[in-house]
Amino acid sequence: MAPVSLDTINPKVLKCEYAVRGEIVTLAQAVQEELKSKPGSRPFDEILYCNIGNPQSLGQQAITFFREVLALCDHPSILDKSETRGLFSADAIERARQILDQIPGRATGAYSHSQGIKGLRDAIAAGIEARDGFPADPNDIFFDRWCKPSGPHDDAVTDTIREGWNTLSHSSVSLVPYYLDEATGWGLEVSELKKQWADAKSKGITPRALVVINPGNPTGQRIIRKRSVDFCKKEGLVLLADEVYQENVYVPEKKFHSFKKVARSMGYGEKDISVVSFQSVSKGYYGECGKRGGYMEVTGFGPEIREQIYKLASVNLCSNISGQILASLVMSPPKVGDESYESYSAEKDGILSSLKRRAKTLEDAFNKLDGVTCNKAEGAMYLFPCIRLPEKAIKAAEAAKTTPDNFYCRRLLNATGIVFVPGSGFGQVLGTWHFRCTILPQEDKIPAVVSRLTEFHKSFMEEFRE
Q1: Hey, what CATH topology would domain 11-59+346-463 get?
Q2: What is the required cofactor set for this protein (predicted)?
Q3: What tens digit of pLDDT does each residue of 172-201 get?
Q4: Cα–Cα distance for residue pair 158/464, rounded to 1 Å
Q5: Could you give the percent of the chain with pLDDT greater than 70?
Q6: In sequence order, which ranges of 271-403 are alpha helices (DSSP H)?
Q7: Residues 6+ apart with CB under 8 A from 279
Q8: Backbone angles phi and psi of 110, in degrees to 5
Q9: What is the Cα–Cα distance from 458 to 463, expressed in whole angstroms?
């Protein structure tokens, strides 16, 4: 017998699933290979990936200033060459010099302090303070190599701070789901939190933290923050705020406000509530998923707990330095008067305005489909439409031994090449069916998504109509 088999492996590993790279995506990759080896074998010529928040894989361009600084830091020997000034902006060169002076050995391939390079943490703290209007301490900043901490689901009360949502399924941590209210634009209702809290306590589970995504994933909504803060204060919960989509707000009358800022504005100090805020270089307008850069700002913990957090950071030695640099640049971009400011602003505004248009186009398209409703996309990178499937389609899904939403997404892929994620991969109210669609395909691809989806959906509903 083999030393490791499905009979001997930890069952929690078998249970672990990640919907955005699950069955539908595996099938999509097989279809993509088929298109390469057998052109014309399908009624479409390319796969349109709408399954994961991976902007640059779908054609989004990197921000020039960020990449200039990274390039100079990775190859510092070119800083003093005369031709460098003709290839790189003056402020990128100066920023690279400043950063390199803070790195051990001036080498991005070195280890850093376990918590992250002090000068880069200084830059991030200054950026947080400018954003929120409240003090931020660089000693509260911990770099790590995650892309985002809380994973693919809005609805969680958990007792973990680090390493991600999917860790839950193969650890000793208990998950206590809560549901957002779709009828109120995916509102977070305190009554629902109280209900799930009481149910958990009755089962002997003691919730330790409330996880929220602000703005939301997969639903794209804005979280009502004051209610969440009050609930955590009352119940003594740590508030874990995934705020990696803070730049992705598409409603003009609404702005991003961090949970720490809200708590401080409500009069709660560090002794009143513990808040951990997560930021990442993978989302926003930068979309640097592969750089694996991010940080958490840890507030409201006593020195003994901070010591334990630092110990965990030390076990992993440190995050990669390129990711640390990029995170500092995200929170300290070019300012008015810098040589790169105008080009940087044009790139940033161009990406965000395009994302806003794409969100609106897809939202409108979904709401025109028979049996589909889609709440307004206020932020993040996703839409989460609700689809009311005919009973005949639900029975066909049962016969195929799959969920109705997975059945729909599988049929959609095979007919159109569009990749959506079934809502069952995120957790949804029993008896409802959804799918998640990113707004990330480049703008010139969106009409193809809309036309292919519209044609397929009409055919699907006619096929399974009672």
Answers
A1: Aspartate Aminotransferase, domain 1 (3.90.1150)
A2: pyridoxal 5'-phosphate
A3: 677 888 888 887 778 778 888 888 888 888
A4: 40
A5: 89
A6: 303-315, 321-331, 341-367, 391-399
A7: 243, 244, 246, 294, 295, 296, 297, 327, 330, 331
A8: -90, 165
A9: 9
